[in-house]
Amino acid sequence: MIFNSLSFAVFLPIVFVLYWFVTKSKLRAQNLLLLAASYFFYASWDWRFMFILIGSTLLDYFTGIKIHNALTPSTKKFWLWLSVSINLGVLGVFKYYDFFVESFAAGLSGLGFNVNYSTLNLILPVGISFYTFHGLSYVIDLYRDKIKPELNFINYSLFVSFFPLLVAGPIERATHLLPQIQKPRTFDYARAVDGMRQILWGLFKKIVIADNCAVYVNQIFVTSDDHSGSTLLVAAVFFAFQIYGDFSGYSDIALGTARLFGIELLRNFSFPYFSRDIAEFWRRWHISLSNWFRDYLYIPLGGSRFGKWKAVRNTLIIFVVSGFWHGANWTFIAWGTFHALLFLPLLLLERNRVNTNTVAENRFFPNLKELFQMTFTFFLVVLGWIFFRAKDINHALDYLSTLFSKSIFYAPVYGFGFNKSFIFILFMLLVEWVQREKQHGLELSGVKNKYVKWSIYYALILVIFEFGANSKSFIYFQF
Amino acid sequence: MRKFIIKTSFFIGIPLILVVLVYLLADPFKTNKKFDLANVNTLNREYLSTELYLKNEKSQQYNSFIFGSSKGCGLNTYKWKSHLPEGSRQFLFQAWGETITGIYQKIKFLDKRKVNIDNAIILIDIPTSFSKIQEPTTAIELKHYKLSGRSKLHFHTTLFVEFLKPSAILKAIGEIFEKPENKINFDTLSNDWNKSSRLNWSKIPEQDSTLNKMRFGKRPKTEQQSRSLITPEFEDILHKIAQLLKKHKTNFKIIITPAYNQIGINEDDLALIEKIFMKENVFDFSGKNLLTEDKYNFSDINHFDEIVGWKMLDEIYGQ
User: Fold this and answer.
1) In chain B, what are the domain boundaries?
2) Which SS3 state, helix, strand or coil, does residue B90 take?
3) Can you tell me the distance from the alpha carbon of A435 to that of A444, in angstroms, rounded to the nearest whole number?
4) Mean pLDDT across the stretch A456-469?
5) What number is the ipTM of this complex?
6) Nearest chain B Cα to A459, which residue?
7) Would residue A326 show up in a list of annotated catalytic residues for this protein?
8) Regarding the domain delimited by B36-165+183-316, which CATH topology (the fold level of the hierarchy) does it fall under?
9) Do the chains contact at B161 and A470, CB–CB below 8 Å?
10) Per the confidence metrics, is the pTM higher than 0.80?
11) In whole angstroms, how far apart are CA B113 and each of B55, B57, B62, B121?
């Protein structure tokens, strides 16, 4: 069941009505209902994956208690590492086993050794990368004594499995989400209305922007050998908007849905394509993942506390691992490494925390410097996305070599819905530019007139239904 | 909470009720009311073809079928009949944008209903026949529930969601108030496309650039071959079709259809199709040839004219 489907449109109101009218704000009933709904939601993908989800939940629930009750530091550490190794082991087997085996065999073959190997060809359980990291954040925070263990199994299970964030995040923290689960939620009209707006904006970004861009992108990437550098550049730019519309759209729908149930999730995107440098980009793109790696990998490795070169090493590790988290392909590692190489100069020059305010703060128009910075940063990000989208490293390199050839000056190929996508991208950029200091593109707290608001809602709905494309998946589900 | 529920219900509910009413009254896909199936032409052509077949199944006892996309409109089953044994009863079992998967579903459907498939023509269009449709979401892609095995609820809800485009709703509202022209589109027995429904190109001056651009768009100057389209999944489906045809001892012909753009089938794909179905049963009319050279052999860039269909039938039956 995906967010932009008829089945979800039926599922959500039913759960909403049961939640607020049947449970009557009783904590246990609320959490039990949400947990049942979450398991139903997940099982609708593939019921077999439920075993892994429940297994992961049980593992971290019990090891969490053991960590808290451990009498000695070594025992505490044992339970932590047990949880971490099993969680990452399961993730590794499903996601990375075939990659490692094939890469190892390819490496040996390159040295002249022919190896017979077999792969597992396992289907990747949807959301495994996300809920595994939820669980890990819980046990690590327990180990660090930041939180107390959640003894109520229903509450803990809901923390891991809450359906809006189950399949594609945001990656929540126990310190942020568990306290909300531990208290009964009361209905807040303004929050619910704004949640609906956020859902609507998310649907627009996914169905109109992402799915229409996908038509052009898929056609060009599949036949990239046949196109000019200019066409490949356009396709790469469109992919940048496809992945943004897809992923941030999903996040908006997830956050908006959670707010209907009185729960606030972590913000995951903060208008990243208005970033003035790569460091700012990474403070605005997939924020929950960046922060997770910062808190649970970068800081434990030493962060920047032990000199510049250790900071460089740790930064490189974070970006490469972050790339690898996205998928078992060298292209994702290349993507992560590319971003590391863009970030490191800023770190070394101590310019990675220069642009921390909102661009063109208190002004409508950016100045020339800001415009240049945003454009240049966006261009670098687009180049990185080519690795992300390409089917392998050779494809990415061929793509780039054609892009930077003299054919970049030829007229690009239009068609495959180019015009439609282009107009809506401009529209989205304009709206998000105007709203860049708000939480999401459709936060209309400043608009008081009810008829104006309703006109905006209806106009967006009409656009979604009339111009939306038909893709039925989200890119980040594959991670 | 009450305020939220009331406002949301009002906001979503009233337009939804109106749209449902329009859908029921206009019946844009002709699935809700009884229609003269020959008289309607909608995007869900497959549904209408299947319903017409089911309506006439017992009385006609069809045993000869043409499977394929809208290109089948260029073949006339009555012309085909002249090449078939006496007593053959033919049906154009088509769907717009038909894929090889759809063709297999139809043959399997007929097989399950214990229909004798004595004669068959399978039209393969490059690249349409080898399009992969993960989950049909449009009226063109959606298969009749008796062919797909999906539920009736899934069928009708998919069509309703497809209808939820403002332009489609406005058009449907127009049709409620305006009686559509009573035009016979399809033969009531064979499901052939009625020639009188065609646009008469001879009456349109060539100076009418808009229409003629539609008909005679640019085509590649040099001969081109399609990239390979037959994946292992499609190869499996082709084998299954071959098995069913063998089971029925069908006298069949596979036609790789001619296209205005003159793009030929990939040679590896052709070799595979010939291997599965035997070379003598496969006729490749794609690419550059006498039929495709003459642009007037095409009624538009996607469809060949009936004269082409006759010539193909004469050639494949050795006349």
Assistant:
1) 36-165+183-316
2) strand
3) 9
4) 92
5) 0.76
6) B166
7) yes
8) Rossmann fold (3.40.50)
9) no
10) yes
11) 14, 10, 12, 19
